[in-house]
Amino acid sequence: MRILSRRLCAAGFDTLRFDYFGTGDSGGETVDAELGGWKDDILTALRELKELSGRARIVIVGMRLGATLAVELAPRLAADVESMVLWEPIISGSQYVKELRDWRSGHHMRAFDLAMSGASDTAASELSGLLVSSSFVQGLTSIDLRSQEITPAPRVLTIFSETQNPDFKIRSMSNDSETVTLKASSPWKDSAEQEEGLPVEIFERITEWLR
Predict the structure, then answer these.
(1) Which of 200, 163, 162 is CA-nearest to residue 7?
(2) What range(s) does the Serine aminopeptidase S33 domain occupy (predicted)?
(3) Where are the domains of the chain?
């Protein structure tokens, strides 16, 4: 996401990246995080971006779970969110949790359900290496975009890679929506220094669509 932000800045966009509560450089612990709180983080970031940039046109670019949270947050979004770019949103939370379990199993790591010495009942799960509450996992599992009739913004671009395409489309408020499948792989890693191995094709597609 750092590389994409730099490309958008070079194209004339003011950008703001943020870490959700309990992750990255943000305060708090993941075990205290909830999906509802992460949605509030998105709203806070949008308000700050408006204040810092003074721009009237707001675009949300979300990746995986971030894209899904942005879609679910649509009814609470301000009218000045003109466009959304959704990069491989999580369509089924239960399938996503299963994938994370399978990934951990394949890497010979500890089981998904983790007995923590001295931990409370709400802190009994580890997800992708992060200790989270059982309610957080339940929130993930309940995600099902197929069951929701949501039109999150006037313009919507949804991007899937060939390996992740679930044959699913998210509509826009004005029917100005596009779903594309690109051959680029899904790295889900980032580098602040170089683009080698990153899906430059997707970066270029996003930048072109937003212009």
Answers:
(1) 200
(2) 5-101
(3) 2-91+145-210, 93-142
